[in-house]
Amino acid sequence: MGVAGHGPDVLLDRNHELALVDAALESTVERAGSVLLLEGPAGIGKSALCAETVRRARRRDIAVLAACGIVLEADRPWGIVRQLLGAGAPVTASRPDDVAAVRHALGELLSGLVEDRPLLIVVDDAHWADTESLALLEHDDSGAGLVLAARTVDAAADPLHRLAARSRTAHRRIPPLGPDAVAALVRLHAPSHGRSSEELSAATGGNAFLATELARTLAHTPASEVGDLRPERIRRWIHARSSECGDDAGDVAAAVAVLGPDAHLAIVAELAGLSRARVAAAFDALVVADLLLPGPVLSFRHSIVREFVLDLLGEGEREIIHLDAARVLAKTDREPLAIVAHLLQTGPTTETWAINVARAAAGAAMAAASPATAARILRWSLQGPLDVSTRIELLVDLARAEIAAGDTGAFRHLQRALELSPAGAVDPGVHASVGEALYAAGRFDEAVDAFEQGLHISARRDVDPLLEARLLVGLDTAGLLLGRHLEPARTRVAAIAADPPAEPSLAEQILLAMAAAEPALGVDRPRAEVAGLMELAMRDLPADAVGRAILEPILGSLAIFDEYERARGLLDALIGLTVERGERIAYASLRAVRSFCMLGLGRLADADADADDVLRLSADAPTASVHALGPARFSLAVSRLCRGDLQGASIAVDDDGPTPPPGSPMGGWVDVAAGWVALEAGDPDRAVERFGRAGQAFTAAGGSGMVCEWRSGLALANAGLGHSERARQLATEEVTLARTLGSPRMVSRALRTAAAIETEPGRSVELLADAVTVLEGSDAVLARAWTHVEHGAALRRCSRRRAARTALRAGLDLARATGAGALERFAVDELRAAGARAVELAGTGPDALTASERRIAELVASGRSNAEVARALFLSRKTVESHLTRAYRKLGISGRDQLVGHLDPRRVDIH
C-alpha cells in the first residue's frame, strides 16, 4: 500500500504483488505482451502499486505510458488512449461503425513504439476507463506489457473480465493489510497512538485508506472515540474537517467534487459563485486539512474523499451543480464530450444550449467510432419536452447512431420521426442515408422500408434525380439480396436497361450501373448486354457516385461473366483505398469478391487467403460481413476440394460457423459449396438437398439462378442416385441457359456436366471438345484446367491415347500452375494410363506454404516492411513475424532477402 501525498510511497505487506510486478516487467522486456490485473476495493492501495510499478519499469529502461480512469470520462470514447498517447492519437474513423479500423491504427502505433523499446502501459482506476480504450488493450498484441488496477471485475461482458480470463493474464485480488502493516502505517502519523495492532486492524479491516484516516484521527482525537471506526464515521470526520476550513470550504469542495478534471481555480470560482481570492483561501485551508492536493487542478487526496463529499450533497443538489458546471464549461474551449458528461448526470432539459452541446458531443462520438456513446447522449437529449422540429432532428440522429452501433431499435426511431413530420417534411435524403446505413449493416429488410418511404415522399415533390437514383438503387439491391423484385426499382432499372440513352446523365449512369450489376444478384441478362451497359455506366463516372450497394454487385457481375482480371484490377485498387482509410467492413466485403475472382483465375492460394481474411475479420465487423461470408466460404471450399482437402472443405461450409441467412442468395453460395463437398464425400442424398436449397435461393428473385452452378451439382447428384432422366433434364436446361447468357465458364461447366452423365463415350468427347473451345482465351484458368483434363480422360477412354496425352499435359500444366493438387493427381494418373512416361507429381517447397504464409511472403518479397504488410492485411506485426518465421522454415531459408529466389516462379505478383 502507499501513503499518497507524504513523500515517497511506502509499501507494506505487498511482497506477493511486487513479485507479480517484477514478473510483468520481465515479460515486458521480452516483449511477450503479458498482463497484470490488480483488483481490490477503494483504498486498498492499488494506486501505490501502480506508482511503484512505474518506478521499477523506468529503472529497467522500459518506456512507460500511464493513464488513470476518471469517473466523469467513462463515456468519453478513447479517453484513456488520449491520456496514453496524447491529443494526436489516431482516434477518428471514416465510418462511425468501424471501431476496428481505429483499433488497428492504434495497434500499429503501439507496435511501432514496442519495436523501438520495451513498452509498459499502466492504467489505474481501470473500472472508470472508457469501453473503447479497454477493448483496444484487450485485443492488443503489440508485445507491450499491461498493468491495470481496478475496483471490481465481475461482469462477464466487461473487457476487464475478459482480460482477467486470458491465459497470459496474472489476476491478483489484493488482500487487506495484515495487523503489523496497519500498525506500521498508523505509526507514520501517530507514533504514540497506544493501540494494539489487532485493535487497529479490526477498526480498519486492513484498508490502507482507512488506516491512514485512523492515524490522522489518533493524532488529533482521544483514543476512546475511535474504536468503532467505520466509513460513515469517516464521512462525519471529513465533513467536520471541511467545516473547520471556513464558510466557503463546503461550496469549494462541492464544486471540485462535481467538476473532476476541470476543477481549475477560475472555473471553481464561477461555479461556486465566489471570487478567485475566496476560492484560493478555501483551497489552501482544504489542503492543510489534507482533503485536497496542492496543484494547478484542484483535486481530492483520494477518490473516496470525493465520493464522501458527493454523498453529502444529495441527489437533487448534485444534479443542479452538474447542470451549472456544464453551463460554465460551455463558455470555455472544452470539448463537447467533456461538457456532456455533466449533462448526463442531470434530468431532462429544454435549454437550447444544452441540446446543442449534446448534439455536438454525439457528433464527436460518431467521429471517434463510438456510435453507442452517441446514441446514449441523444437518448438523454430526447427525454424532455422539445419542439417538433428539434425532436425530429434528434430522432433521425439517434437512428443513424443506433444503426452504426447495430441497435435493432434504430428504424423505430426513424419511424417515429416520420410520424411526427408533416406530410413529406422529412427530406428523402434522410431516408437514403438511413437506408444505406442499414444496408451496410446487413439489415436489408429495414433498408427496404427506408428506401421505399423515401421514394414515396419523392414521388410527391420535385427531387434531385441523383437522390432518386440512390433510393432506387438501394431498394433494388437490398430487395434482390432478400430474393425479392421490388417496385418501382425493378421497372425503372429494367426500362433503362432495355433502352439505354446514348449520352446518359449522372443519375442515369447510376441506374445503368445497377442494371449491369444485377446479374450478380440473380437477374438474367446476357453477357453482351451487360458489357454494353457497363460501358455506358462507367464512362467518366465519378468514384464517389457509386456506393457499396452498386459497387460490390458490379464487381461480382464482372466475375460471373469471367472478367476476372478486370475485376481483380478494380478490386486491388479499391482494397488499397480501404486499407488507407482503415475501412475494415468494406475491406472484408471486397476480399470476398476478390476470393471468387482468384478462384476463377486458378490462383488458389490467393483465393484461400482472401477467404480466410473474410472469415477472420467477420468476428469484429458488423453484420454486413456475414453476407460476405457466402462467396468467401464457397471459394474456400471449392479451392480446398481442388487441392484434395475434403476435411478442410467440410470445415469451410460448417453450419455451426457464422453464415448468411439460409434461403438468401448469399446463403445459396454456402449451399452450393456444401453440395460439392457432399458429392466428394460420396453422399448424393445430402448433395441433392443442398443443391436444391441453393436453387431455391438463387431463383427467389425470379431469374434462372445461373449466377452459380447449382444445376450442374444437382444433375450429378441425381445421376449418382440413379435418377438419369432428371439428371439429363437438368444438364440440358443448364446448357441452354448458359448459351443464352453467354459466359464461357457457365457454358463449359454445363457441357462438362452433360458429358459426365452421357452414356455414349464418343458423345462425351464431343461435348468436352466443345467445352475446351468455348474457354479459349478466357480468364477462367481453373475451368480450363479441369476441362482439358476431363477432355483428355474422355479421349483416353475412347482409346485415342495420343490426343489424350496432349490434352492431359495441357491440363496438367494448368493444374500445377494453380496448385490444384487433386486435379494434378487425376491428370498424372490419366497420363500414365494413356502411356506417358516419367510423369511425376510436383515436389514440395513453396507448395508447403499455407495461404496466409504465402500471401505474407509474397508481400515481403515485393519489398514491403513487416509494418506495411500488417497494415495491408489488418494484422498485427507479431502475427506477420510468426507467419514469416514458419515460411522461412518451410522454404529452408534464413531471411527475407532470400524469398524471391525460393517462391514459386510460376506465380505472378499478387497485385
Structure report:
It is a single chain. Helix content is 64%, strand content 4%. The chain is mostly helical and 911 residues long. The strands form two sheets. Strands 2-3-4-1-5 form a five-stranded parallel β-sheet, with helices on both faces. A two-stranded antiparallel ribbon has the order 6-7. Mean pLDDT is 84; it is low at 1-8 and 905-911.
Number of helices: 45
**How many strand units?**
7
What characteristic shape results from the CA principal axes? elongated
Side-by-side strand order of the widest sheet: 2-3-4-1-5
List keywords for this structure.
mainly alpha; disordered N terminus; 911 residues; two-stranded antiparallel ribbon; disordered C terminus
Brief summary:
The chain has 911 residues and is mainly alpha-helical. The chain is built from 45 helices and seven strands.
What's the structural blueprint in terms of helices and strands?
Layout: H1 15-29, E1 35-39, H2 46-59, E2 63-68, H3 79-85, H4 99-116, E3 119-124, H5 131-139, E4 145-150, H6 159-165, E5 169-173, H7 179-189, H8 197-204, H9 208-220, H10 231-243, H11 249-259, H12 265-272, H13 276-288, E6 292-293, E7 299-300, H14 303-313, H15 315-329, H16 336-343, H17 352-367, H18 371-381, H19 388-405, H20 410-420, H21 428-440, H22 444-458, H23 465-481, H24 489-498, H25 506-517, H26 527-538, H27 548-560, H28 564-581, H29 584-600, H30 604-617, H31 624-643, H32 646-652, H33 665-680, H34 684-698, H35 710-720, H36 724-741, H37 744-757, H38 761-774, H39 781-797, H40 801-818, H41 821-833, H42 851-861, H43 866-873, H44 877-891, H45 899-902
Parallel strand pairs: 1-4, 1-5, 2-3, 3-4
Antiparallel strand pairs: 6-7
